[in-house]
User: Fold this.
Amino acid sequence: DYGLYMTYLVKTGRSEQYDELRRSLLKRFATRDDPLLSEFLCALTMFGPADEEIRKGIARHYDVTKHRVRIFEGKNQADESQNLTAMAMTEYRLGDFQLAAQHSDHALSLPFPYDLYIPRTVAMRAMALHQLREDDDARLTLAYCHQQVDPVMRTGPSAFNLNGMGGWDSWVDAANLQREADALMGAPSADDY
Assistant:
């Protein structure tokens, strides 16, 4: 499963292997127009900085994901929230922080299929707001992310409660983005909670 393996690589700091795998996935699926695959690639290949080759490789999949959001708009909001999060992650890596913040906000206004998907969007929103120099809101958003992620990472997710604490890879993905936000902005203090 590419998703679990990529999560493992990022969590364990194997950035060179992660980068090599995401490049190979983008090349392998360069001509595919499958909306689910495109959303998957937008989400999983954007857990690190994107150089020009990565930006070119993801551009087509971003467009397919964007089109999928328009198809689902108002019909299946749980899928729409996931698509918007994948788009926000891609936009952030492409340097469009305003659109990343807008899509994060829109995603957070919709229902998610499981609560465990929310922290990733919250972390992305915090980083985008920081880049837009909306530091107070960014810090509060990052503190909220810590409130969600830290207890799960301390105790570990439960295999018996998917909505509460299951889905290890989703929590690790959120923790990876949270760690990146902490490095970018500084970890929030207890006063920020």
